[in-house]
Structure formats: structure tokens, C-alpha cells
Amino acid sequence: MSRTIDAPPAWKNPVSLRQLRFFVELARTGNFCRAAEEMSVSQPAISAGIRQIEAHLGVRLFDRTTHKVTLTDAGISLLPHAQRLLTTAANAFSDMHEVAGREIATVRIGAIPTAMEAVAASLAELAGDMPGVVPHLHDGRADQLIRGLRGGTYDLVVTVQALPDDDLEGVPLFEDEMLLVARADHPLAAHDRLPWRALAGQEIVHFAGGSIGELTSAALQQNDLAPSTRYRVDQVNSLYGLVLSGLAIGVMPWLYTLGFPEDRLRRIRLDGPTVRRQLRLLHRPQLREEHPRGVEFAQRLTAKLRDKLSANRLP
């Protein structure tokens, strides 16, 4: 239970970044002594900082016992907000340092691995168009990127999402179609297009997690098919290895197949249904107020990415 505490007016005794760090560290360690050691302060300083936050917000953040400290329901709800504020503050201080020293702006970008080549090539071209902007680029899984975007780690994210959530905005970049991948001498490789039901009786492998797994599993179930129980893969090279061996056929998005050995593998389009995933560039609505140059950069990056990705569109 979270007990309510009488809160002072919001303008009195504002919560500091230091106190927020105390809150996040105590939530992580669950122990006042360890939190104080990690923050290089005394235990009374941690206790005082937590009391001040609780007094300011009017709720109790922790339940304290002799042996452990646990978050209340209010503490659990408030923790991600505190983490996001600290991440945003750290990024802002870093940006201020760079602006003061070199008069530049930083744009932090996350991208799923299949989009990295197009994103990197677009950034290289934009370097001459916007010399005052320095992009930082990281890759990651779609769920990690979305969390990072919400948490303030990224300004922009290129990822796969059916529709942006209410707290995010996005623009479509590319529809990535799911394909059958088979060894060149496989009987199914003679076709340019097949219905999903033609995969019956085959050992079918695909990535189990994320949007790829969800979309492929739904299409298989719709056609009374099931993925292989003998072979499971999570990596591109693993899937290619199984397909090249002839032990299985694979289902994967078009972007994953770029640059693959066409003399040894074949790509076959699938229908009934045709399955596509939407690649989008996402950002938080606050970007307009927080990072005006980031908005301009996002617009230019969107145009570049659409050009590059459309060049790889299926015939």
C-alpha cells in the first residue's frame, strides 16, 4: 500500500536531480547502506533525500523493514519517470557541453539491425547537408529501442511497429515483405511465388521473437502450418545455415535477404496472405519543443531513408 503524505505546494522544495538519483539507486539496491556506498554519500543523506521526495510528491515511495526496502505501488509507478528524467538530464548536459564547445547539436538515433545499412548511408550523406548536427547511432531490438525512446535514450528510432502508440509519433518508411528462402536446388525454389499452404510437410524455420515471429506464426496458423520443432533459430546466419544445408526452408523479411548468396539461395514471394511489416521512424511528441534541430534532421533523414529503402523494393 502507498500511504499519502501531505504535500507542499509544487513550487516549494523542488525535487533535485541528486534526490532522484538517490531514489533510483535505492530502488535498484533495495538497501540504504548499499545505495549510500554507490552514491558516495552517507546513509542519512539518502534517507533525507527520500523523505524530501516523499514530502514533495505526497506519497510514500518505499516500504521499510529491518532487513529490506521495497517500492510501494506509487514508487513502482514513479520509478520509470525518474529514470527518464535522469536520462534526459544527462543527455541535455552532454548536448550543452558540445554546443558550448563546438556549436553543434547531437541527435541520438536507434535502429533495428536490418535498417542499419540504410540509416548509416543516409547519415553519411546528411553530414554535408547539416554540418552542425552530430548523429549518434546505436542498433538494438525493436522492444529495446521503443523503451529507449520513451526513456529519453534516443531522439529518433527506426524500427518496426504496426501503429505508433499514443505517446509516440511516427512516419512510415517502407513495407518489408515476408519471403520464403530455400536452397537453389530445393523443389520449391523453382517458383517465383507460392501460397503459404505449399509449405505443408516442410521443416519451416523463422525467428521466434519480435514482430517477425508474431507475423510469421499468424500466417502459419492461418494455413494450418507449424514451425519446425527440430530446428530453432534466433540469428540470421543460423537460419541461412539450416537452409543451405537443405534441412529446412526459412521465412524472413525482404530486408534480411539483401546481399545473400543468390547463386545458392532463392527468394520466393508468399501469398494467402501476403505478410508485410511496417518500418517507421518514431519520436516522442516533445521532440518539437525539446530539440527543434532534431525535428529538422528527422525530416531530412526520413526523405533519405525512403529513397534508399524504395530502391530495394521487391519487383
Automatic annotation (TrEMBL):
GO terms for molecular function: DNA binding; DNA-binding transcription factor activity. CDD domains: PBP2_LTTR_substrate. GO terms for cellular component: cytosol. Keywords: DNA-binding, Transcription, Transcription regulation. The keyword S-adenosyl-L-methionine does not apply. Belongs to the LysR transcriptional regulatory family. PANTHER family: HTH-TYPE TRANSCRIPTIONAL REGULATOR YBHD (PTHR30419), NITROGEN ASSIMILATION TRANSCRIPTIONAL ACTIVATOR-RELATED (PTHR30419:SF8). This is DNA-binding transcriptional LysR family regulator. It comes from Nitrospirillum amazonense.
